[in-house]
User: Which sequence fits this backbone?
DNA sequence: CTCTTAGTGTGATAAATGTCACTCTAAAAT
DNA sequence: ATTTTAGAGTGACATTTATCACACTAAGAG
């Protein structure tokens, strides 16, 4: 059963009884997408926070000149969304697109709140996720403050060696904030 | 009473009874620091998460060459710490230093956990803080991906006009990841 | 098989930013 | 009153990175 992946994921942080997990999993819906499909499109409402069962996504911000910047990648056992638009129920400013065929579990904001209010364990789980999400973002900011493009690339290779093999270098460049030509000239 | 500032801050997110607030405030201790003093020093354990009653702090990461990078500023009604070191009870990799005389309320990790476990309202409060903390960091990443140094400076001026007046430009440069000379040449 | 497309590499040049050296001003210290 | 120090501005030059143009390869579509 696909939902077991979610259970194992949550139980890395808080233990659950069978009843509790049944209650939790009743709030998720399952969806499948093909490579190049969009889960979220800029300008549209953001219905779900996504837990990724398999596959690979990119969260993209498109600037005024049409250039695409990758805010984050997301793969198995990661959560992803345009979280600001989701949390405030406003229109998406980013898009979420498949780099591979992807299967997800979907959670609406109403159900997110319901889970938090009903099960303190789930609120604890989401607090832990939010704290580590913040720390990951802070780590990326520090990488930017302290390192040039090549060093940031090397740090990325070291931190996510598996991810790198699944993502075209041009996309890594859009994540690192460097042109694909410059990235291509790094010997590493 | 100084603690009233904390109460008003928490009640922006969750309402509290007098008893609840009394219980909460019993877990904080009050401290005062002078300009140039350190609340956290690199290599030392991180005892507290700080709620700032008044004053101004900078969170600084010092790289291998001794160059100082400002990870964040923090002023009244903000929370600050070397959160990774605090949360994992490891040694600080950053330092937290006063840019002005500063008064804070201090919360140990044990008490943070106790508050979360005892009062779901407080867990809810910290979840909200963590989510918005993450979104703030993500916003800064997007600013970096999409904008050059001058545009990032202008965005900072627009987003935190009050902060800018209290911080020397050389420190803003260290926050923006640009040399003070380059920042000085921007006409804005 | 041929054609198209995505991904990549690379040279030439332009633009942005860093570094070093020096100056100036105003506030703080003595 | 003077000396010191922090903060800021600027010129000259070096370095990093972006941009544009083009070539090459491999995988997928017809």
Assistant:
């Amino acid at each position: 059963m696909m939902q077991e992946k979610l259970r194992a994921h949550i139980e890395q942080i808080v233990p659950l009884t069978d009843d509790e997990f049944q209650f939790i999993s009743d709030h998720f819906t399952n969806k499948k997408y093909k490579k190049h499909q969009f889960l979220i499109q800029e300008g549209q409402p953001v219905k779900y926070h996504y837990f990724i069962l398999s596959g690979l996504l990119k969260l993209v911000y498109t600037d005024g000149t049409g250039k695409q910047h990758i805010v984050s990648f997301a793969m198995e056992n990661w959560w992803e969304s345009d979280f600001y638009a989701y949390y405030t129920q406003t229109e998406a400013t980013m898009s979420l697109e498949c780099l591979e065929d992807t299967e997800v579990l979907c959670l609406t904001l109403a159900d997110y709140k319901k889970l938090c209010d009903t099960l303190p364990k789930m609120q604890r789980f989401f607090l832990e996720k939010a704290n580590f999400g913040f720390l990951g973002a802070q780590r990326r900011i520090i990488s930017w403050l302290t390192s040039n493009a090549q060093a940031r690339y090397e740090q990325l290779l070291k931190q996510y060696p598996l991810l790198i093999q699944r993502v075209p270098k041009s996309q890594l460049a859009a994540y690192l904030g460097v042109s694909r030509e410059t990235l291509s000239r790094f010997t590493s």
About this structure: The mean pLDDT of chain B is 96. The radius of gyration of chain B is 17 Å.
